Structure formats: structure tokens, C-alpha cells
Amino acid sequence: MKAIFQDLYDRYHQDLYQFIYYMVKNRTTAEDLVQEVYIKVFKSYDTFKGESSPKTWMFSIARHVTIDFFRKEERRQNRSADYYEWHDHDEQLSDVQPLPDEIAEKNEEIQLLYRCLDDCTEDQRVVVILRYIQELSIQETAEVLNWTVSKVKTTQHRAIKFLTKRMNEVEGGHSG
Amino acid sequence: MSKFDEKEIEKLLGHMPEIKDEQSSDYYYKNIDQEIQFNRTKRRNKKKSKLLPVVASIAALFMVTLLSMEYLPIGNSSFDESSDIELDEFESDTDMKKYANDEQAESSIEQGEEESMESAEINSEDSVEESTTETFTRLVHSDEEGNENLVTYFFPDEQLQLLIPVTFEQQVADPFEAFNHVQDVIPEDYPLNADFYEYLSFKETDSNGVPVVEVDVNGFRAEYPGGSTVESYLLQTVQAYFAQLNENVVKLENENGESVTFSHTGEIDQPLESKSVKKQPYKIIHLNGIDEPFYVQVPDYSGTSIEPLSIEDAFQRMKQEGEFTDAAPSLPSDWSIQIDNQTDDRLYLSIENVDGENEQNRIIAIETILLTAKSFGFENVVLAIDDIEKIGRYPIGQPIQVPTFVNPHN
């Protein structure tokens, strides 16, 4: 089994880790979640139908694992809301994370865009990450998300439009 | 003048840096191996913790000995073994199945041990259950008395992944008005959360007869800040409720009679299509403090298929453990279900290998088959099962109507 794991790791690990990292923006969480992806893969590969490639299948599992993580965070924050008064802030976990070195080394525009990704809806963010950062095709993205191709295109279009608007707002000093 | 245009944003996104993982493959492998071993041990201990009759234990040990001899060359079931599989095999469906088979062979001793013990347990339990336990049903059919005032409400599960339908007897006769009275019927300590309904109220039907639901957006936002999943389930609650009343659309309005705007979903300025989840299997889910399981429709969260589900696939999924939800299989894994024929409204099924199950599990299986058939548009189902005339109240060999209501309270 180690050989299977190693093969999966060599082929897909970097992509999976990076995808999850950009979604959750926290190294430790990304490590935990990518580990969970492997466990789910090993538990369920006998049900894999081969209708999508192993790569999109694993990305699909990674997406569900991150969605599950966000749900748990949401519930945790709701439970804690009385104590921390999060009601008024609508804060996300990722907002308080420092920039990773890879981003901090880049120019201000990249850093700004990295921050602005948080303002997208979850659907928009996942499409942007899969399409532009992971460089998946529209068809592959549709398979990962279990969406139609046209839904991917529409969401991508809206995401880019939103990010453009948001970047200009922040750059122009109207970040509220 | 704007500094960024859409092309510029796309270009910048293409320059986002790679984020490297600082951990090694060995780190992950070690953790995953431990986790999988831990889960197996936990499963085994759970099963073994039940008291086995002496005779069953001897039978189980005998089976283990036989299986151990048969699979002796393979060794134990550690995740770390059988590393001589060709790596390229992960590239196709067929090859994925090979891995599955390897995994099955690898753990066959453990499984053999578990299954033999399990079957011994089941057999010994059955003899007790059949003589002392009354069976229950989770369905109400249209021809049953007293179902005039029943209303089905939908509640999200704890994981916010499933919508669980529960049917209550409701004094409010108008089904639209009844939407506003869930709190009248749901017991205080009920293990399902009806809070969503506090932010929703049926207001009126508009000039076209479309139901209008008022949403307390501010109250909802204050209680559930920043959650697109929660928003989605609020909407699904409305959609599911009105879909069962055969309403195709439902309008949403805020307190001022304007369109509703959520933090994540955005503005909803068009009538919402009221849809129930079509063509998906029913499985079971257990709620805290209630012994009998509930039936729940389970969308495909695996992401392994984008094709519409066939009813054969739905039956297959009803046998599988859910990797992504708390729902559990409603069909025994060894049941063989064959579709003999189907017309527009009737489904003919042959079922084999039902002998190993007790009456209650058979009823659960048949009832979830009926519900799944209903979700595929069938109105009745004819079952063929050798040597059995009836399961619960369901006659074998005769048409059985699909149910009208599911999960009646009490």
C-alpha cells in the first residue's frame, strides 16, 4: 500500500495541498485536510467509477473535505458568537492569518489579490483557484465541482468581475 | 480611472505563487497508516464488545481458522503491506477496481473474522429479536386512515448536509398556513433543529397563486453570520416544503416586501423554484435519543459522477456506507436486486438473498426501496422474492403503492 500512497503523493500531492491551502489559508489546517483526503481516497476507492480521472476525483474529495471543514468552523463560530461578538464582524478564519512567505515575497498587487479572494463567495473562490491557480480546464473544473460547464463559466466570469471591482475599490482607498 | 481591468486580474491570478508543503511524504504516510489502523481496531473492538454465545464463538473461530489457512501467504492486514502493486494501475477505472480487490484480499482475514463473528451475532440476535421485538414503519400511505392532517416539515441534519423530512399531525388545515406552525407540533426536546422556521413565514399567495414567504433577513443574518451553507439550507427548507405541495415556484420577500438579499447568495429577485431532490436514494439516519432510524434522501457528495443517477445505481448506493454524510446503508450489502421490468408508473423488482436479515431490516429495506422508486417517478412497485409472501404489511408479488408521507412522528 505504501507504493500506492507514494504514487498518489508524487502525482497529486503538491496540487492537492496547494488547492486546499488557497481555500483555507492556513498551513496546519491544509496539512490536516490533505491527510483526510488520502484517508477518504483509501476508504472509498472501491466505489470510484472511473467516470472522471483520478485527479479530478481526488480534487472533488478535497473540495468536500474543505467544505466540511468550513461547515464545522461555521458551527463553531456560531456557538462562540455570544462570547466573541462575531455577529457584528462576519469574520472568517483566514482573515487573521499572516501572509505565507511565498505571497509575502511577491509584489503588493499579488498580496492584495490574495486578500481579496476572501471576499469572493465560496463558489467563486473555488472556481478561481481551480481555473487560474491549479490551471484545470473548464471541463475538469466542472467534473470536480459536479457542475455543468456553463455554470463554471458563469461563476468564473462573475468572480473575475467581482475581483476587478474589489481590487479597484481597495486600491482606490474605498475598501469598506 | 480604474487601475485594474479583468484581463489584468486574470494575468495576476496566473502569477499567484505555488505554495509548497513543508511536510514529507513519510510524515503523511505514518499518520494515515495510524489513522486507518486505529479505525480498524475501533471497528473490531466495537463488534467484539458484544457478548457472543459460546456456540457462535466456536463457529466463528472455526471460520477464522479456515480463512486463515486459505489466505496464509498474504499475511496480516497492515496498511504497510502488499507494496508490490504496479504503480501505473491508478490510471483507469478497471485498474482502480484492481486496487480495491487488492485491498479486499489484503484485509480478507480481518474481514472474514469480522464477518463470521458478525454473522454469528446477527443470527443469535435474530432469534431473540424476532420473538420479542415489534417492528415499526416509517411510512404513511394514502389509503391509511387519519392522514388528512399530516404535514411534512424538513430539518437540516447536524452536519448541514441532509434535509430530514418528519411528518407531524397538524391542527392547521391549510398546508400553506401550516408552514408557520411547525413550533406548535415539534416537541421541545426534539433532536432536530427547527430554528430556520423562525425566520420564515408564509405570507400570502399572490395574484398568480404563487405562495409568498417572508424572510426575516436581518434576524437570520444576526444569528447566522457569514455562512453560505446555512443560507443554502434555509432556502432548501422552503423549496422542499412547497415542492411536496406541488408548487413549482415560491416567492421570497423581506419585511418590507422587497426582494431578499443574503450575504453570500446575494439578491434573490426571481421566484425560487421549489424543488425536491429527485432521483436520489433513500438511506437511514439515526437521531439522538430516538431508537428507530429515520429515512433521508442522500444526494451524491462523492463527486464521482456527473451523469443522472439510474435506479440501479441508486439501489447500489443504498448499500454503501456514506463517506461524506452521517447517513447509513438502508439495504443489506448482500441483497441482490434485479429490475425485471418497468412501465411509466410501475417498477418490477426481483430480490434475492433476503434470508439473512431480520424482519425489521427487511421492512427498512422495502420502505426505502419504495421511497427511492417514488423519487424516480414510479407510483407502485411489484416485488418478487422467493418463498416470502409478505414483509411487514407489504405483500410480495402484488403492486405496492409508494407512500404519501415519510417519517411520521409517533
TrEMBL record, chain A:
Occurrences of domain RNA polymerase sigma factor 70 region 4 type (ranges): 111-163
Location of the RNA polymerase sigma-70 region domain: 8-76
CDD domains, alphabetized: Sigma70_r4
InterPro entries, per the entry: RNA_pol_sigma-70-like, RNA_pol_sigma-70_dom, RNA_pol_sigma70_r2, RNA_pol_sigma70_r4_t2, RNA_pol_sigma_r2, RNA_pol_sigma_r3/r4-like, WH-like_DNA-bd_sf
Entry keyword set: Sigma factor, Transcription, Transcription regulation
Pfam family, one: Sigma70_r2
NCBIfam families: PRK09639.1-5 (NF007220), sigma70-ECF (TIGR02937)
Family: Belongs to the sigma-70 factor family. ECF subfamily.
PANTHER family hit by this protein: RNA POLYMERASE ECF-TYPE SIGMA FACTO, RNA POLYMERASE SIGMA FACTOR SIGV
Protein name in UniProt: RNA polymerase sigma factor SigX
Organism: Allobacillus halotolerans
Upper classification of the organism: Bacteria, Bacillati, Bacillota, Bacilli, Bacillales
From TrEMBL, chain B:
Ranges for region Disordered: 100-142
Key word Transmembrane present: yes
Keyword line: Membrane, Transmembrane, Transmembrane helix
Amino acid composition bias (Acidic residues), ranges on this chain: 111-132
Recorded superkingdom: Bacteria
Transmembrane segments: 51-72
Name of the protein in its database record: Sigma-X negative effector
